[in-house]
Structure formats: C-alpha cells, structure tokens
Amino acid sequence: MKKYAWRIYLCLIFAVLYIPILTLILFSFNETASTAKFAGFSLHWYKELFSSPETFTALRNTLILAVLSSLISTVIGTAAAEGIYKMKNKLAKSAVMSVTNIPMMNPEIVTGFSMMLLFVAVAGILRMEYESIGFAAMLIAHVTFCLPYVILSVLPRINELGDSLSEAALDLGCTPVQAFFKVKLPNIMPGVISGMAMAFTLSLDDFVISYFVGSSNFQTLPLLIYSMTKKKVTPDMYALSTLIVVAVFVLLLFSNMKKSKGETKKVGGGKK
Amino acid sequence: MAKLIELKGISKSYDSEKVIDSMDLYIRDGEFITLLGPSGCGKTTTLRIIGGFEQADEGELYFEGTEISSVPAYKRQINTVFQKYALFPHLNVYENIAFPLRLKKIKEEEVKEKVTEMLKMVALSGFENKSVSTLSGGQQQRVAIARALISHPKVLLLDEPLGALDLKLRKDMQNELKSIQQKIGITFIYVTHDQEEALSMSDTVVVMANGKIQQIGTPTDIYNEPKNAFVADFIGESNIIDGIMLEDKKVKLASHVFDCVDGGFEKNEPVDVVIRPEDVDVVEPERGMLIGTVTSVTFKGVHYEIIVDIKGFKWMIQSTDYVAPEKTIGIYIEPDAIHIMKKSEYSGKFGDYSSFSDEMDYISNADTAEEF
Amino acid sequence: MHSIAAAPHIFWAVLFVVLPLFIVVFYAFTDESGSFSPWNIAALADYFPIFLISLELAVIATCICLLLGYPLAYAIARAKPQHQKIFIMLLMLPMWTNLLIRTYSIMAILDDRGFLNTLFDTHFHIIGTKGAVIFGMVYDFLPYMVLPIYTCISKIDKHMWEAASDLGCSPIKVMTRVILPLSRSGIISGVTMVLVPCISTFYISQKLGGGTFELIGDTIERQFLNGARNIGAAISLVMMILILISLAVMNRFTDSDGEDGGIIV
Q1: Residue B124 needs a FRET pair 20 to 30 A away by CA distance; which of A180, B25, B330, C196 works?
Q2: Are A69 and A110 contacting, i.e. CB atoms less than 8 angstroms apart?
Q3: φ, ψ of residue A179 in degrees (nearest 5)
Q4: What is the ipTM of this complex?
Q5: Residue B77 sits at the chain A interface (C-beta within 8 Å)
Q6: Domain containing residue A112
Q7: Is the pLDDT of residue C128 over 90?
Q8: Residue of A nearest to B97 (CA)
Q9: A272 and B CB contact within 8 Å
Q10: What is the model's pTM?
C-alpha cells in the first residue's frame, strides 16, 4: 500500500514536470501558429526554423561562446584548483575560496548587472562603442561564471588523490611540472571533464548574465528565444526547443550509459 | 664501507611540535639500515627528509659528501617504495616500471630490455599488460620495487612497505627484499614499527622514540645490549626491574643479590635491570633465587606465557612447561641473562607486566597508520 | 606545481568578480555626473513593497519546493540503484532545457486562452496571479532542491535505517531523529539554490505574472533598460547584501561540511 503511495507521488511530480515539455514538443508539430489548439501534424515550423538565418547565426554564436568559455575556464580552473590545493596558508586559502564562490552565490542578475557596469566603464576608458567589445565582454562574463563550477568539480578530485602519486613521480625523476601533467592530470581527468561539461552546458543555457552583458550584435540562442517571447511567439521556437530537448536527452542517455558501462567493468575487475 | 649519507643536527617541527630533535646519523654504502620506532617517533619524517619530500628546519644533509638539503627530490639519486605503493593507476604494469626511463627519453628497445629484466627480478614476468588495480597487494609491492630500482638509484627508501600485507606474505617479502638488496648491493633505508621485521632483515637498526635516536647497532646488539628501558621494552619482551649495582658483577634486585657480567658502574648506583622472559627458568620454590605466585598462564603455541607476582612486581616468563595458576614457584636466572642499564628518562615506564594484555599490544601497534 | 598555479584565477576573480562589485557600490553612491549622492539609497524606501512581495513569493516557493522535493529526493534515494539513475536523469533533463522555454510553455498552457482552457473549454484565470508565479518558480527550480538532498540522503549508510529501527525507532522516528538531521546540509544547500534565483528572477514574473505586479528582479531590469544605472546599482547592492547575509546565516547551520551538497552532474 505504502509502496503504491510512493509510486503515485513520483509519477505525479514527474508528470507535472514533463507536461510543459511534452506540450511544447506537441505544438512544435502543429499545422497552425496556435500554441493552444492542435490543428494537425506538420513539419512546417521546422522548415521555418531551418530557413531562418537569424537562428543559425545565434546557434553558431552560442556554440562558439560555449566552446571557448568552457575551454578557457577549464584551463584556468584546473590550474587554480591545483594552486588552491597547494596553498599552505589557511587564511589565504579560505579567502580565495570565498572569492571563487561569489559568482555561484550571488544572484545572476547582480553578477550580470555588475559586469555590465565594468564593461561600460572599460569601453568608456578605451573610447570605444560598447558593441565593439561585445563579444569579448560576453566571453569574459561566461568564463567568470563557469570558473567556480570547474574549480568545485576538480578540487575534490585533487584532494582525494592526495600527494602520494605526485611524490612518487618526483621521486622517479619528474620535475614538478612533469609530475602534474604526466601523473596528476590523467588521474583527475574525470573531474576536469565533468567540470568542462558543466561549463559548456552553463554557457549554452545562460540567459540572465548574457542579457545584461550582451549587445545587439552578438545574439545567442537564449537571447534570441527571449526576444522572440517578447513578441507573439510562433511554434518555430517550439521546434528549436524540441531539438534542444532531444539533443540534451541523447547526451544524458549517452553519458549515463557510458558511466554504467565503466562501473560494471570496474566491478568485474575487482572480482578477479 | 664509506659514509654515503650523513645527517647532522637535523631538526623538524610541525606546528611547533618537534618531530625530529637534532638528529645525527650516518649511513654507509651498501648497508641495510632500519629506522625502528613506534608511531610518531619521527622515523617516516626522517625518511622523507632524506628523500627530499620535506625540508629540515635545521641541520645538514650530506650525500656522498655534498650538502643536498636544497636539491629537489627529482634530482636526488634516491628512490622510494611508498607505504601504499603509489602506483600510477592510469598506467599498466609495464608503463609504471618504464616511467623513469620514459622521462629520460630512452629508446624503446632498451626500455623493453630493462623492464623485462626488472620484472624477472621481482618474479612478475608476463604481467606487463595488466592494470595495476587488478594486482594483489604483494604484486603491487613488487611493481613498486621494480619501478624504484629501474633507474639504478644509489639508495632505496622503503616506508613501511610491508604494512598492508598479511602475515604470511610479509614473511616471504622480507626474505625477498633482503635477497634483492644483496643481489644489487645498494643501500636500503627501511622504516618500520615492527621490531621482528627490523631484526630479521637489517645490518643496522636505529631505534627511535620522540624524535630522538635511542640506540644504533646490529640486531644482536640491540636485542642483547639495549641501552635503556625504552629499547629493552620495544625490542622483544622484557622484565625491567629497579636494581642497585653493589659492585662490578654484583646487582641487587628484589632484595636478592645476583651475579651478573656487567660492570663499570658507581658503587650502589641505582640501575635498570633487563631480564628477557625466555631466560628465566621455573624451578621448585626451595631452589629458586626468587619466589612468587603465578597469576596467569597463556598458551602461545611454542611456549606458555606465565605472569608471576614476585613481591608485587609482575614478571613475564616464557616456558615450554605448563605451570598451574595460583601455584607458588621459584625462578632461577643465569648471570649472563642479566643485563644492566643506566637509569634514563624511560626508567619505570616500561617492563612491568601488571597491566599487560594482548589487547594493549594490539592497540599500540594499530595506530601507526596515522603517522606522517 | 605550486600555489602560483592559482594566480591566473585569482587575477581573473579580482578583475571580473570583485572589481565589478566595487563599481556597483560606486554607482549606488553617486549620481549620473559621478559625484557622491546618498539619494539612490534613500530612494530605496519607495521600493520597499517590491522587496517585500519578492521575498514573500520566493519564501513561499522555496517552502513548497522543500515540501515537495524532500519526499521526492527520499523516494529516489531509496529506490533501486538502476532506477535511481533513471529518476535523476529525468530530473536533470528539464534542468538543462532552457528556462525561458519552460516558462513560456507553462504560460501557453495556463493562459486564459491557453492549451488547458481550450482543451477543457473552461475559463480559469491563472496567469497574472501570484499563484501562477509561485507555480512557475516551483516548476523551474524544484530540481535544484531535489538534487542536493538526494546526494545527501544517498550518502547515508544503508545500515543507518537498520541500526535506528534496531534501537527502537518507529519509521517516523527514524525519519525525524536520524535521517532528517543527517540530510540537513543537503536541505540547506537546496534551499539556497532555490531561494536565490527565486528572489532575483525577472523572467518568471514577467511571463506568468502577466505584468500585473513587479518583483525586485523586474525593477533592476527596468532600470537597466532605462539606463538608470545608479538606482539599479543601489537596488542590486541591497539585494546582494540581503542574500549574502541570509546565506551566512544558513551556513552557520551546516557544521562546516558544506561540500556535501552542491550540484551533481
């Protein structure tokens, strides 16, 4: 009896969670422009979507931004995690950690607003139009809010790994830099990868900060979606969202399958 | 044998707690030397200073006559077998052992030849492509040794390398380590808290406590001629009794005057007297030098461990004959079984078996894992 | 590698995190010509009702998230391992679907002439009420509540349930005396992760509030669009301080094991 109560509860919550997503998928195939009444199946809105140059530019921009910002934040963040691990002064360490956590703790709207003020000031000093530093501003903003997530993903791995492997590498003749790249990095790689994946998705998905920092000449998908929702929305946005949902779903499924495969392999090895 | 490594006045503190207190020690070329002591005595820290993983606060460290305190670990001709092996999980057995050679960009053929030779030495031929995580503890141990030896260091440091192995395997590895050391003829500096391991493998044993060296000597010296109550108690079992040296070769303890073989003390000087449990003979009360009551008897396989109350002091006696508890017995001790030590800061702290139990012994050995 | 490896990050954080916050402070205390002015801060009194309603809605939404999310996290954590994975994936999928789209979709469903009213031919008026905004907040941020709590509960030793009932706890007492206290750090990080975006949201209130009332996030956005940076900075500053204070207060309840919560990927 109790078991069924739990199941009903789970089903109910997930149903509510998925109804908006499912309706969105449904109406992306609608024949008419209505988002309330389903008139019949058609791929009309997908054609519309793919024939829009605006969407393609936004998609390209979003991907460029996500790739660059995740790469930069992963490099800086991984180095930072190693550096923070090596810090001996506890006070300095906690000070650095506090500053690191600010972009995660601060409301996005404040982060976005404050960075916008900085970039306006910088543009003023350089006597440039804000638009001309638009891309740089956006990239810097994205790296900034991705950094804490990379660090928090890598740092536990480094802590867990400890010093023993690095010391063994030094003992066997590695310079400290070699020891990091040849021994430490391969062993903290899962943390680095998941940090990078997180940075990538955060950048891909970010609206609030991009909205404040961005300028009209560098449109990303979330910004495009926002500008579309300001007007009367046509289901081509639904089509776009459907594609994103499917992409994310496939990605999640793939990474989960890979994970569980790796786990069974490990268990098998342990049994020997 | 020449001095290979020399420590002069080495001191080290962590958070104002002194771990090593102005230590002097030299290590000769080609010897198997063991740093032995309880957890927290500073033995691992000493090893880490020699290996280059820690900097001493004070003192000098010489290697072949040159000061090397500021030489980083990777430039020292000293390699280490770590406590938990520290094998690289992302590399297989072959690549783990080849690691030091890869750094020197040595040709693949030569690498292969050397690794094969090393694997043969540690009896792991055929394990090249195995992942290190699938190896047993003993096999991981061998890989760690092979990896540390492949670049021909002058010194091998071993930090409790057998601690994680079970008893049977530990004994086998002791013999194997000793024979590897004899085969390649380099200096081994070995750290352990296991006195039996130290006695059976080493040329020289350095007993440490509280960051200080208590005694340096051959295993027989250390066992037969302990310098103070700490060493006597830590190495094997000992009854340590307060005595008074009446004159050379005459010592009074438990109100009985014994003949002994030691001399060179002041007249009537208070001393610590060490008598090993296996050197005490159980006799009829009327024939005994001292008389006491048996309080407990434990069967230990090879012998019985008998605790005897003699005038309030509990002695431990090891005998192959069974003695019933509560029985009154006499004990007899040969003069050469009596070892006299000067009084030290450790006097009165060890060597009484009134609170003795196996459990206590277990607890004092179990905490070694927390050491630096 | 030494602690010097952290230098680029520290440099970056000082330049792009700390400096902008100082600029916010500067703007908050100056007028448009750049000279000192206390009036931005003084003018905040006008915005007090907005602060209040933002806080009210955010707190209600966070409480609902906790009440719905805790049992959900508990149920997932107690499910079979292979089921857990599926549930977590199902929970994360909406999270990685753009927030704007999800919110818009809710609007399209609940609208006066939306999917729901069309489907059942009814005339419920939902969009434009506080309830709709709260529903949107709960819907958008529920996964942020569930994931940290789930992580926390799933880390609790399975024997804990057996030990507690062995020692005489009824199932309810196992929950209140053992499991709830042990999952406290998850609850706190879940509450944080829901409360902060709820207080500062401007999108949800615009779409689901139907423009009938303004939240503090909307106010900042409006000032931003109007170019009224000084007053926007002053509001941002106050909001930031309020949030940092509440985070500090909450952190006092997590006995220094803050790393238990956080997001999992």
Answers
A1: A180
A2: no
A3: -60, -40
A4: 0.84
A5: no
A6: 60-231
A7: no
A8: A172
A9: yes
A10: 0.81
